[in-house]
Design goal:
- The protein has 224 residues and is of the alpha+beta class.
- It has two domains: 114 residues, Archaeosine Trna-guanine Transglycosylase, Chain: A, domain 4 (Roll), CATH 2.30.130; 84 residues.
- Helices cover 35% and strands 26% of the residues.
- It has a five-stranded mixed β-barrel.
- Strand 4 and strand 5 form a beta hairpin.
- Helix 2 packs parallel to helix 6 and helix 4 packs parallel to helix 6.
- The radius of gyration is 18 Å and the shape is globular.
Length: 224
């Protein structure tokens, strides 16, 4: 079924291996490759939007890297141009998108038409969502780095202030789970299903996990 015109838009693609970016989160980036410097220049001159998407397998010789069909539309914030032409910036996740068709372009970077994906929730599961939030937070207290002001603010926000769809995305982004599972969570638009999967993951994987190197929170600047 084709997307309605109102939900389609032309997007700039930023494939980045090893990381799944989510709506409602922020990703610090250092931009140094010529194609992505051009992409950043164009974004800053326009709507400031970039779609971060995960490659799904290595590229063949001379071919663009294949990508997953669902990524996250982000908007550039707090950019800083360095004297050597590189950029430091943050990408703020806005919404899920499905890549529909890549387009031919003279630009160094890739572009595509994409469909905006909307979250769905069932009102009858509101009480269950709060129980799931409590259970997930119980496990987060075990796996997050040593408590400090930043971590405390993060946990307080998750416990009291954010909506269920925001909660599921922030936890999916920050939890030390596999990239493959994160991509599954990104592709799931049903918030209740995302929370169910996070609870199952907490029970199966996170409860006994104490990483050798605790995850850094907030994350450091990512290289492109």
């Amino acid at each position: 079924m084709s997307a309605s015109p109102a939900k389609r838009k032309r997007v700039r693609l930023f494939p980045l291996g090893g990381l799944v970016f989510f709506p409602h989160t922020r990703l610090p980036l250092r931009i140094f490759e010529p194609r992505y410097k051009q992409m950043t220049e164009d974004a800053l001159a326009g709507n400031r939007e970039i779609v971060m998407v995960l490659p799904n397998r290595p590229a063949g010789k001379g071919e663009p890297v294949p990508i997953h069909s669902v990524g996250t539309l982000g908007i550039i914030k707090n950019e800083r141009r360095l004297p050597n032409g590189e950029f430091l910036m943050e990408l703020e996740g806005i919404e899920r998108v499905r890549i529909l068709d890549e387009i031919d372009t003279p630009k160094l970077y890739r572009q595509a038409d994409a469909e905006i994906l909307e979250d769905v929730m069932d009102d009858q599961f509101a009480s269950l969502r709060e129980l799931q939030r409590t259970e997930i937070l119980r496990h987060l207290h075990v796996i997050l780095p040593e408590r400090n002001e930043t971590v405390d603010q993060y946990l307080t926000y998750l416990a009291r202030q954010c909506r269920p769809n925001v909660f599921s995305d922030i936890v999916s982004y920050s939890a030390p789970i596999s990239v493959e599972l994160k991509q599954e969570l990104l592709e799931e638009t049903n918030v209740d299903e995302r929370l169910k999967k996070l609870v199952e993951t907490a029970h199966d994987q996170l409860s006994g996990m104490v990483p050798d190197v605790p995850p850094t929170f907030p994350p450091e600047f990512s290289a492109t």
